[in-house]
Amino acid sequence: DWYYTYVQDIAKAGITTGYPDGTYRPSALVTRAQMAAFIARAMKLNVPKECSNSPFYDIDTSKWYCKYVEAIKDADVTSGYPDGSYKPDDYVTRAQMAAFLVKALHLDKQPCTTKPFVDVPTDAWYCPYVQALKNAGITSGYPDGTYRPNAAVTRAIMAAFIDKAFLGGGSSGQTPGSSGSSFLINNSSITVSNVSYRTSNGENIISEATPPDGIIFSFNVNTRSQSYNIVLYLSKNNNIDNNTNDYNFYSAVLRNNKNNPVKIILNKEDPGFSKLLNCYGGKYYIKVRATTTSGYEAWAVSSSPITLKKVWTFAVYMDADNSLDSEADSNLEAMENVGSDKNVNIVVEVDRQNMPARRYLVEQGSLLKIMDLGEVDMASVSTLESFEKWVSESFPADHYFIVIWDHGLGFERSLSNRAPSRDLLEDDDTGVAGQVDVMSIPDFAEALDYMSQKIGKKIDVVGLDACLMSMVEVAYQLRHSTNILVSSEDEILAGGFPYGTIVGDLEDKVSSNYNVSPETIADMTVKDFMAYYQQITYATLSAVKLSAMGNLATSISGLAESILNNWDNDTVVEDIKNNVFKNVERFLVDYSNNDYSYADLGNIANILYKDDNMTGDIKSSALSVLQNLKNAVISNGYYGYTYNSTTVTGLTIWFPDYNTFIQESQHYKELDFAKDTKWYDFLYQMQQ
Q1: Which of 383, 395, 388 is nearest to 357 (CA)?
Q2: Gap between the Cα atoms of 429 and 425, Å rounded
Q3: Per residue in 74-124, pLDDT tens?
Q4: What is the helix (H) or strand (E) element at residue 285, kind and residue range?
């Protein structure tokens, strides 16, 4: 039968499924309700699951066809009759079909200066539509020169028109090509070339900040087919014979109007643009596949990659290759419960005991493994820098929140026999038998400097999910690479940060305002942490602005110098050693040695300022410290013990006893803070 190929084509394309009994009924007439379904499927419209409102007064929302009529009305394919009706049960005439197709294909109506067919008057309302179909090669009428505009359309004829209009069917001289021939760049039936893209602001970056008119993809297509299918892909490679992991973000059937370049415009409201944002960030090439209905296809790829950029990347460096291994699962699960979204990438590198290190993109409900790393030393600067390189290149963002997950000890070396733990990042299995490694604060600062250089600016927020890290000395060391440090003066319980709450609130805030400031996110993190641990015996967390650390360090140095200048005053010295030293709020550093050498900075300054035995210059210097500390601390939370606003002020400072000073002084002198201020000189004098 003449119509067999046409019916086969539209069935393969999903435009028709036939009747439940397996028939197509080619001789049956097409109603306007059925026409709506044919057109909506052929156009690949976003058809609602059900009708919310009746598109015309004679369309019942409970009818099967209501959603299709609603879809083609929204696409400006039909406006119904002047009386506000659609008449879904009326049969479609060939004149009406011409109008439906021309509007669906976005063809221009053609002027009727002469009759396109002998039975189509030039002044008939449908003449411009019939002329457009004829000019596009979709219809040649009947052999007798007629078009028969008033004849009802059969399902066989409908199949032929739909196939020719949307799928390029009926082209002469074409034979089916081999499926899966993606290794062909071009062939004689279709070619694609000159793939490019641009946004209105001229950037090669797609993000939430992209202007509303979105992005334009351009390419040339040459084919004899009347229409063809276009699919756009994101690809990590620019090899057209390697497409297995490519990401399809747009497809459409295009009418061959022989105009080049073809332009695909995705504004920010388009589903294709949303699919781009939902893909994880990084650099991608744009691949174009064009396919004729006869099976021939062609590929082309852009010469340069485009960057998909999220608003925030939340990246966790999880060193669980130690006694914290058992805590990793709950933290990963908490992040999984939220997952990355179109604005925020959540990524993790985790090293577990007796397992290889792995990198993941955290999706809602699952961890997408990006790569196995084998056994690595998480306390190595090179390993951390490799993680930072991966994050910055694969998950670019406007803002970065980097979390270090592990044991912490401020800057000190542990004096216990448990492990030679020091500073931050303890890896009990480095791949070298019997070797345990740790990272010093200067080395940590070096690694963060690398990240800052990679992204071309300071890291927005660094969170230290590790004990005792909110120290003046640590914050000062990181000042060149980081804007805000979120960390704790005291221990952080083994459960760590409440990751589900933090990433969930981060996504909510960014969704409401993608210009939300890093200060707001840091403050949110402190509040989420304190709310989570409100019923625990004790908890502290603060967010500190590191650009203020220079002034704070200068004021601390001034305080130390004022004290040293009055060291010949016995009353001052006695009060510092017996009042300040003994009564200041302290935090336990090492259980086995009863080491409480980290003291709250604000509490030291408060005691000095209120001590009547202190000289005026010491009091003035103490007040300067308090003022600069207030400028530095964005947010501060505390709970439990006797903690209050004067005893837990956001940062500790090293204030050791004699034994700890002897043990750690050489290590301390490696820190920038010790080199740049008089604080070490004061501590040295305290031991004499």
Answers
A1: 383
A2: 12
A3: 888 999 999 999 999 999 999 999 999 988 887 778 889 999 999 999 999
A4: strand 282-291
